[in-house]
């Protein structure tokens, strides 16, 4: 590239001991005496001269950041930055022989005759280590973990980056003048190249093991350097040359020859430029150009790799085979199953191991141990042919020279064009423009054509009738071999190749354009870089610098041009090279349209389109049978090609209108089918029915139904729309149908009901005048107003309404109303069943208040079963069972009503119920559970726990002790156990008495009763049951009395309620209070006398059940003396339930009775509940406070 002569001021050449490139390769730095010269790498211009050393500069090394380090005979090491300024200097005791930098950490290694030093930018001190012999060279590994030292005593020392010696390689006594680690990143192990003055090159691994054998150099090496990629290395020395070697130790070729010893050579980063510094004071730069060496035959391509290997590639399958020659490969030639490789001292002929196009296994057939220099090399089946300027020489595989041709001009191009084995032909392109044909078995060349310019490229077509030539003017000319006429010519061509499978197809390239030419058609162009070297089928082989690429050329353009001229056979042949499926279909269809059945059939066979093949078969059959109606044939072709309107036109022209109708029908093009039918015979009914059937088969129900409607088959449309749930469409049909279409309307109504579209169903029933079904729809929709509206106009339908309305009322907690409608419907047992279920659910869900209400309501229903005019003794078994259920339900209603507050006391954190009331409720529930049974959902533990807690707090220690003793016999919740154990112990410290305030007064005999009696909630003296308030369960000042014989209930009521002037402080049956005047007269005194004279029970509490109380009897006069405010009457409509009379014995205590359930309450309790909730706390009936 360029050369620089370095001299001092006196004109004396200065030896170049060292030169380097900066890391980016922009500058070249060289030593020249005491100076350092900096050159621009590309132009060679001197940029700067540095003078920092006092004696000769011996060595250089590049540093990261494009600086460098220098060492000289002045024993100094200087660090220079990228601005060529010295930033640091440190010294050794001897001349600096070598400097190098760690490529990873930036550590600088400086070597002398006695030691080496390691310097890093972050540490000022230089760590120096003594060595046993003079260091001549050094090199770091790529990863920066180790460095190697070449010593004067012939040893190589491999050390870690801290300086610790890992391996010592002893190579004899010859000085090791240069070492270099391979920079190739793909190596598994680091490889060290070592050259010494025993004139040997060796390679070692980092563990000291030698790789391969020593290579003889024949001179004393002074420098060794790798290419940056590690692909090659250069060595220079005493022979005044620089040699190129492979990294495996194969000598390739000398790069240069200088006038003095070569002290240093370096390769420029990212370039193939080699800088050489020699003893004669010259700096020379050389570019290493590695010419491509390759050969191609059809799709088998051989090329040189790494200068010593041959790779054979099957371009179609991308299979590759590598042949290691272990020597410099100079020439390559491929022909059929032969491969010739020329090495420096021999030619090796390989052959395929098997005669198979896809086989890639080669073996050596022959070796020619001759150094034959040539310009071009080709191989045939039995010979090697060498081209030496104007001479051709043919050698057999055993090395014998068989024939020689001497020509009039230099050979520019040679190509083997094939032929029988041993009789192959060659095409020669000469510099004088001659094109010759030479047969290897003939000594006489044959002239084909003569051009006026030198030949650059030639090729022959498949049939050997056309010759393509490219001259120095880059013009491609095609000749007819037989007539020597020019068929055509194209400019801007640099290479040309005929298709090896298609006779009339060629390609040529030039100026970055690829041209594909077929016959006489214009060339098809596309962008492509490189030279065309082969063309096989639809694949073009292009060589772009060193890379062979395959370009797939679509044959669509060529096929289209043949089709334009209706040359379908040529179009088919072109398509076989490779076109898309769409192109095949276009060829098949166009050939079919032109009735070229042969090409069309072959194209459809490739597409596997059996439908069109069947169509072609039909046309062929018609032709065989003598059919000559081309319109009919073309119509069928157009139909199969999806050109339906064209097919219909051709069918009509051929007189086959029905075929056109059938075609549109099969294609579901109903509009065109009906239009065509209307134009001919006007019959469209069958077409529409077929359309509807097809739509139904395709599950397009809406469309099918619409078609049936169009035909008028509403029943079929309903059958489709109904199951699918298209109620809106069904309603449209209903509105279209006449009232007399009863069957269809009923079917629509049923589908409306099935899909819960009640409004449409009602509208349908109205159209049918079907009141019963219409009423049922209103019932199902719970539109009771509309239902009763029908019932008002048609009373005979009311019974159809009552029962479902009763169910609806019961589900909405309107039980009283529900009972009325159950009764109206005559379904007492249904009412009872519903109430039973509600009662059980309430108990299970611990809604005891609701359970009480449901049982109360249930008791009334059971009582409704019992006749009103029969005594209990006159009832039959069913009636008696109902009567017993009535009494049981009344009891359960009272028990659950009391238990609800007990349960809430235990479960809730606090309660608003008074303690005295809770104690009364708990006692009432416990007495019932003890003497009768424990109802479902009631816990005795809860009841006794409540009794124990509250009675203890109220001073009822005896009752609390009783409750705790019973609790200890039961299984209680674990969390209560400790508390109950403590209460049981502490209660023993209390007196076994109950507080007087807890005593219960009997208002019949005026005796005082203990707080609790387990037998019954009655007086222990007279056995009279206490009358309890259904709110607080306190004993009320009421005494029950009976009537004298002969006084009926009607008479008694008349006697009591006749005198309106009698008043007393009481609350009437509507809950309102009256003036609290004292009761005077003979009636009260008579009652008191009767109560005072009643016999006492001598055994208190022992016969409460066996000897029931005898109630006071009132005469006619006594009843007449009573006022209605002193007496409470529990009326009854049933004879089996007697009317009961109660007398209020304390005029200052006000009592109220619910007119619905006949339960008693204190006036304050009653007023509070009614004012708060507006209903009775027991039966929940609406109540009010009236004056």
Automatic annotation (TrEMBL):
Domain IFT122 zinc ribbon as annotated: residue spans: 996-1039
Subcellular location: Cell projection, Cilium
Record's keyword annotation contains Repeat: yes
Native species: Batrachochytrium dendrobatidis (strain JAM81 / FGSC 10211)
IFT122 second beta-propeller domain segment(s): 294-548
Lineage: Eukaryota, Fungi, Fungi incertae sedis, Chytridiomycota, Chytridiomycota incertae sedis
Protein name: Intraflagellar transport protein 122 homolog
Alphabetized SUPFAM superfamilies for the sequence: WD40 repeat-like
One GO CC term on file: non-motile cilium
GO biological process, one term: intraciliary retrograde transport
């Amino acid at each position: 590239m360029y050369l620089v002569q370095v001299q001092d001021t006196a004109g004396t050449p200065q030896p170049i001991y060292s030169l380097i490139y900066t890391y980016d390769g922009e500058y070249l730095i060289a030593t020249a005496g005491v100076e350092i010269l900096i050159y621009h790498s590309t132009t060679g211009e001197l940029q700067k001269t540095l003078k920092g050393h006092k004696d000769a500069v011996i060595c250089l090394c590049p540093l990261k950041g494009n600086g460098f380090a220098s060492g000289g005979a002045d024993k100094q090491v200087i660090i220079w930055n990228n601005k060529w300024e010295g930033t640091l200097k440190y010294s050794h005791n001897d001349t600096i022989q070598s400097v190098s930098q760690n490529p990873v950490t930036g550590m600088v290694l400086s070597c002398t005759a006695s030691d080496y030093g390691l310097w890093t930018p972050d540490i000022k001190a230089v760590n120096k280590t003594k060595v046993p012999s003079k260091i001549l060279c050094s090199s770091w590994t790529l990863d920066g973990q180790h460095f190697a030292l070449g010593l004067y005593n012939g040893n190589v020392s491999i050390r870690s980056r801290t300086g610790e010696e890992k391996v010592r390689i002893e190579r004899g006594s010859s000085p090791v003048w240069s070492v270099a680690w391979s920079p190739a990143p793909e190596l598994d192990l680091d490889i060290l190249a070592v050259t010494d003055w025993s004139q040997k090159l060796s390679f070692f691994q980092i563990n000291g093991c030698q790789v391969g054998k020593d290579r003889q150099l024949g001179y004393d090496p002074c420098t060794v350097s790798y290419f940056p990629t590690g692909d090659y290395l250069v060595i220079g020395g005493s022979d005044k040359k620089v040699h190129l070697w492979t990294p495996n130790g194969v000598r390739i070729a000398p790069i240069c020859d200088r006038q003095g010893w070569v002290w240093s050579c370096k390769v420029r980063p990212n370039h193939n430029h080699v800088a050489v510094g020699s003893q004669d004071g010259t700096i020379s730069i050389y570019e290493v150009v590695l010419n491509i060496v390759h050969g191609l035959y059809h799709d088998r391509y051989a090329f040189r790799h790494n200068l010593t290997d041959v790779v054979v590639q099957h371009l179609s399958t991308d299979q590759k085979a590598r042949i290691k020659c272990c020597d410099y490969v100079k020439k390559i030639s491929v022909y059929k199953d032969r491969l010739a490789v020329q090495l420096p001292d021999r030619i090796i002929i390989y052959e395929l191991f098997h005669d198979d196009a896809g086989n890639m296994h080669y073996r050596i057939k022959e070796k020619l141990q001759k150094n034959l220099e040539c310009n071009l090399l080709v191989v045939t089946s039995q010979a090697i042919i060498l081209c030496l300027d104007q001479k051709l020489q043919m050698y057999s595989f055993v090395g014998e020279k068989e024939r020689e041709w001497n020509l009039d001009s230099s050979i520019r191009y040679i190509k083997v064009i094939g032929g029988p084995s041993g009789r192959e032909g060659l095409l020669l392109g000469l510099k004088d423009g001659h094109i010759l044909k030479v047969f290897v078995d003939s000594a006489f060349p044959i002239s084909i054509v003569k051009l006026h310019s030198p030949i650059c490229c030639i090729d022959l077509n498949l049939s050997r009738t056309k010759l393509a030539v490219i001259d120095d003017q880059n013009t491609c000319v095609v000749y007819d071999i037989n007539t020597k006429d020019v068929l055509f010519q194209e400019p801007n061509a640099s290479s040309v190749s005929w298709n090896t499978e298609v006779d009339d197809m060629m390609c040529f390239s030039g100026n970055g354009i690829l041209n594909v030419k077929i016959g006489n058609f214009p060339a098809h162009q596309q962008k492509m870089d490189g030279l065309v070297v082969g063309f096989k089928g639809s694949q073009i082989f292009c060589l772009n610098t060193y890379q062979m690429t395959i370009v797939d050329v679509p044959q669509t353009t060529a096929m289209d041009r043949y089709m334009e001229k209706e040359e379908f056979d040529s179009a088919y042949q072109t398509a076989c090279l490779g076109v898309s499926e769409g192109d095949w279909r276009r060829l098949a269809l166009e050939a079919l349209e032109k009735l070229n059945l042969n090409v069309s059939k072959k194209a459809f066979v490739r597409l596997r389109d059996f439908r069109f093949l069947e169509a072609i078969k039909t046309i062929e059959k018609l032709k065989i049978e003598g059919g000559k109606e081309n319109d009919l044939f073309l119509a069928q072709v157009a139909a199969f090609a999806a050109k339906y309107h064209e097919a219909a036109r051709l069918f009509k022209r051929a007189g086959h209108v029905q075929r056109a109708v059938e075609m549109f029908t099969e294609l579901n093009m109903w509009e065109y089918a009906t239009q065509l039918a209307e134009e001919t015979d006007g019959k469209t009914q069958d077409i529409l029915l077929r359309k509807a059937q097809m739509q139904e088969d395709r599950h397009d129900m809406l469309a099918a139904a619409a078609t049936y409607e169009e035909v008028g088959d509403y029943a079929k449309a309903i059958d489709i729309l109904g199951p699918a749930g298209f109620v809106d469409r069904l309603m449209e049909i209903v509105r279209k149908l006449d009232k007399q279409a009863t069957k269809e309307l009923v079917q629509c109504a049923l589908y409306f009901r099935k899909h819960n579209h009640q409004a449409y169903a009602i509208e349908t029933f109205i159209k049918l005048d079907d009141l019963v079904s219409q009423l049922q729809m209103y019932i199902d929709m719970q539109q009771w107003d509309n239902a009763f509206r029908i019932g008002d106009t048609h009373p005979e339908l009311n019974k159809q309404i009552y029962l479902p309305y009763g169910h609806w009322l019961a589900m909405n907690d309107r039980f009283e109303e529900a009972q009325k409608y159950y009764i109206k419907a005559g379904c007492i047992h249904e009412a009872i069943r519903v109430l039973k279920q509600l009662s059980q659910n309430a108990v299970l869900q611990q809604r005891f208040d609701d359970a009480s209400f449901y049982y109360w309501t249930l008791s009334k229903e059971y009582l409704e079963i019992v006749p009103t005019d029969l005594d209990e003794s006159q009832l039959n078994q069913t009636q008696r069972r109902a009567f017993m259920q009535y009494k049981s339900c009344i009891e359960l209603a009272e028990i659950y009503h009391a238990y609800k507050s007990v349960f809430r006391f235990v479960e809730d954190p606090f309660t608003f119920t008074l303690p005295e009331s809770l104690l009364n409720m708990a006692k009432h529930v416990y007495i019932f559970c003890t003497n009768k049974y424990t109802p479902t959902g009631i816990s005795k533990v809860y009841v006794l726990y409540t009794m124990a807690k509250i009675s203890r707090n109220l001073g009822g220690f005896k009752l609390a002790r009783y409750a705790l003793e019973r609790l200890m016999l039961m299984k209680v919740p674990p969390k209560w156990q400790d508390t109950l154990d403590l209460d049981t112990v502490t209660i023993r410290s209390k007196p076994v008495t109950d507080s007087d305030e807890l005593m219960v007064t009997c208002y019949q005999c005026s005796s005082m009763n203990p707080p609790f009696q387990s037998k019954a909630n009655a007086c222990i003296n007279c056995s009279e049951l206490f009358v309890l308030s259904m709110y607080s369960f306190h004993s009320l000042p009421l005494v029950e009395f009976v009537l004298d014989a002969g006084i009926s209930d009607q008479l008694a009521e008349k006697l009591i309620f006749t005198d309106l002037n009698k008043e007393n402080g009481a609350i009437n049956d509507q809950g309102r209070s009256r003036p609290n005047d004292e009761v005077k007269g003979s009636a009260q005194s008579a009652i008191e006398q009767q109560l005072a004279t009643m016999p006492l029970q001598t055994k208190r509490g022992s016969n409460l059940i066996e000897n029931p109380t005898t109630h006071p009897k009132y005469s006619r006069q006594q009843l007449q003396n009573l006022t209605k405010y002193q007496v409470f009457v529990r009326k009854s409509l049933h004879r089996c339930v007697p009317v009961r009379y109660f007398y209020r014995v304390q005029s200052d205590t006000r009592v109220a009775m619910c007119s619905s359930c006949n339960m008693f309450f204190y006036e304050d309790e009653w007023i509070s509940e009614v004012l708060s909730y507006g209903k009775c706390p027991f039966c929940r009936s609406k109540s009010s406070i009236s004056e």
